[in-house]
Each structure stands twice: as structure tokens, then as C-alpha cells.
Amino acid sequence: MEPHTVEVDWGLPPIEPAQVGVGLLVLVGAYVLGRLLEAALRPYWRWRGRSPSFATVFAMLTKWLVTLIGFGAGLTIAFPSVRPVDVLGGLGVISIAAGIAFQQVLGNLFAGVILLVREPFRGGDQVAIGDVRGTVVSINLRETIVRTFDGRRVVIPNSVVHDGVVTVQTGYEQVRTAVVVGVAYDADLAQAREVALAAMHGLSAVAEDPAPEALVTQLGPSTIDLELRFWSGARQLETLEARSQVISAVVGAYTEHGIAMPAEIRVLEASAGLEQALAHAGEGTPRRGRRRTTR
Q: What is the pLDDT of residues 74-111, one digit of tens each?
């Protein structure tokens, strides 16, 4: 008696090897096409004037979009009973669940896309983001990487960058710096201004246009303050170099022309209690004398 075999119907559609092979070829072709587009779009966007971060990120997104479309097409070819609408519906449910679970991650991703599209700053710009000051290394989908002026690597989430106040120091070619110098009350202010302006003209780090300025701004306790305003290159090292040259030149010129720059005078008044305490301390000090000895 032959054994009776029971066939279980799993409700799956018949699988045709030829269709599966064609589907795999479509998937592989889409992946290869995506890689080719990624390699071609990077130099294209750089040629169009976009930043390296923009070119890298959006070329990568194009690659994965083409691959995803190829995956859907290959799945439909391999399994004709699978409708793309059903797959998209399942992906929609998954995306909603992922969005609820990873709100912060998705927030950083969307903020990164906005930063890359709008480009308020680029890689190589010097920025101030909150307490972080330095040079932007790169902008990714999730974070912005900044190298501080003292050489530290800081990773800032894009949502923080997008929602915060960002100062782009290199947003323009030149920036203005101000240095305050105090001269004595008996100094000739017109001469002090002329000497300061002459000292600032011709410095290598100071721009000639706009021209430097020397303005009387404040009456201090012991000096009359002049604010020296000058323009220089926007980068941090350029502003520091210009500041150093201006201070050295103006101090040397004032010394040469005999224009005094007195230090701040502070007057200390002793209270009545302190004076009495000092007086009593002086009276209570024992006097030293010679000791006589008798034999």
C-alpha cells in the first residue's frame, strides 16, 4: 500500500524562475544606474556652483531613489500578483511607525535637507553656532561638523543649527573691528585722531576701502576714549592680525608724538571704622628698648 501524501496549499502564487531572473536583472540594473547617476551628478552640481556637501548628499539620495524604484519594478516582474499599491501601503504604515519612533532623527534629516538646499553657509565658512565658533567641515543629512579655532571637532545636530541663531563670519568678504584707546584729558583730540588715522593707513591687514575711522566715544574716569574702527578680511586670523597691527602702530605713534595714554585711576577712601582701627593698632604697638641688668 503506497503512503498517502498530503499537499499543503499555502496560497502563494506560482513562481516562475524566468520572471525571478528578469526581476533580479532589473534590480541590479537599477542599482548600477543609480551608481552611475551618483558619479555623474556630483561633478554636475559642483559645476552648477553647489557646495560639495550638497553634491554628495543629493547624488547619494538620487542613487537610492533609483534603486528603490528598481526594487519595486523587479519585485512586480518577479511576482506579478504583488501589486505596487500594496507595497506602498505597507511602506506607508511602516514609515508612520518609524516617524513616531524616530521623531528627533527625522527632524535632523529634514533640517539637513533644508540647510543643504538653502545653503546659509557652506563647508569652509567660519561660523558661530551658539557657543561653538570655528570652520564648517561638512554638512550631512543628520549633523553639521565644525572644527573649532582651537582644533576641536564638534558635531551639531541639524535641528539645533536650523532652529538656532547662526553667525556666518565669512558671509561677506570684509568685516569691521573696533579697538578702544584712551588718551589723557589734556591731550589734543584733533591731533590724537590724526595720528591714529595716519598710523592705521598703509597697514597690510587693514583695508583702505572703507577707510579707517577714529571717533571720540566716551569720557572715562581718567581718559577720553577713542574708538578706532577698521575693516579687514573676514576670516578669524585676518581680523586678529589686523587688530594686532593697529594696536602696535597706534601705540607706537602716540609714544612718538608724546600723546599720553594714562592707566585708569582708582581712588580708595578709607571708612571711619578702618581709620580708627588703624589708629588703635598704631597706639597698641609695644615699643622695644634695651633691658637693663643690675649686678
A: 667 666 665 655 555 555 555 555 555 456 677 788 88
Question: Is 177:207 a contact under the CB 8 Å cutoff?
Answer: no
Residue 162 one-letter amino acid: H
Q: Where are the alpha helices (DSSP H) in the chain?
A: 17-47, 52-78, 84-101, 103-118, 158-163, 189-200, 236-257, 272-283
CA distances from 207 to 2, 127, 175, 231, 241 (A): 103, 22, 10, 5, 12
Residue 138's alpha-carbon distances to 32, 50, 90, 147, in angstroms, are 27, 13, 35, 10
Q: Which residue matches cell numbers 608724546? A: 258
Cell representation of residue 256: 612718538
For residue 13, give the amino acid letter.
Answer: P
User: Which stretch of DSSP H or E encloses residue 139?
Assistant: strand 132-139
Which set of grid coordinates corresponds to residue 223?
A: 581718559
Closest residue by Cα to residue 242 from 177, 171, 172, 194: 177
- 84: which 3 cell numbers? 505596487
User: What does pTM read for this prediction?
Assistant: 0.64
